[in-house]
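Marked as duplicate of an earlier ticket. Keeping the data here for the record.
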Amino acid sequence: MGFREHSARVRRILGIVLAVLLLGGVAAVLVTGGDKDTGTATKTVRTVRGVIGSEKAEFFADPRVVKALAAKGFTVTSETSGSWDMEELPLDGYDFAFPSSKGPADELRAKARVRSKPADAAATTPLRPFYSPLVVVAHSAAARVLAGNGLATLGPRGTSGTLKMEAYLAAARADRTWQQLKGSAGHAELSGTLFITSTDPVASNSGALYLAAASYVADGGRVAGDRAAVTRTAPLMRKLIQVQGAQQTSSDAPFRDFVSGVGNPLVLVYESQVAAQLIAGRSMGDLVVLYPDTTVNSDHTLVPLSENGRAFGELLATDPELRKLAVHHGFRPQGAANEFTTATQGHADYLNQTLNGVRQAPVPTSQVLHAMALRARDQGDTA
């Protein structure tokens, strides 16, 4: 073999070897991801769309929450609605619905299951990341008058106390006015019929739960379970609602009105709304927090409507940073009372951190509660 032929053969062999090595290098890059600097790698972001109760709007708008969600690969777009009104919304296009309690969540889940495949039914199982009890906020003059007439008790500093539900309902049943209560003279804002402002129970969760607690007390500690039970308490429930006139469909507006110094001196709100103000260091003015001795915890319940919605709900319930931020917005994380107590240590003058002396009323089924709300609004069966 000549030199030229030998050289050509060597070049061909080297060419084949180099080609093999090059292909191997490309394969290695594909398998290992190439350059180890992942700073420029594109991160998958899942955008989820949901409908939420208005009391959670500030939580989702908080830049710290937005950042924490983005770090976990989520962008959330949301719109607000009364919890019971959500049932009337088309679910197409939503990844989750986040009403303020189990009742409307159950209705939404049933609606979601109708449109889902049987194999997907488990995917709509609700998640309950956090909860908040219902409380009554009062101006200090109103709270003192209630206490002076046996309708409430106040703590040492007068910034928190207990509303005696049985005594309050007796006053409502008798159409008591502020002027009939001793100590009200000289307070021009304390006039007319004594009542608590709530949201529309047909549209809003807090208004419906107000009826759940009130009917439980009014019926001797029995939870309404049928039409007969609804009928027994209907006259009083009607008084509680109709004395208010026009009602809001979400809890945010009545609380903002109260903080601004307008509206009724007694307003039913979520504890979370008060706690968030305290934790943020905002002025409370003459606000007094009254915990009804019989109340209802509002379990904020997320209903997944897609795989991404379920992943988002699970993250919200378990991620330490998001749970911490939920507490900063006044919510009590499920199964971790100490997280709330720690965050509100400096605000025990306003908050009953352990809910000591507060009895939880069972909540009727969503069908019974909805019937009760309709009767209270004179929109249901009056037979």
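See parent ticket for discussion. The longest helix spans residues 3-32.
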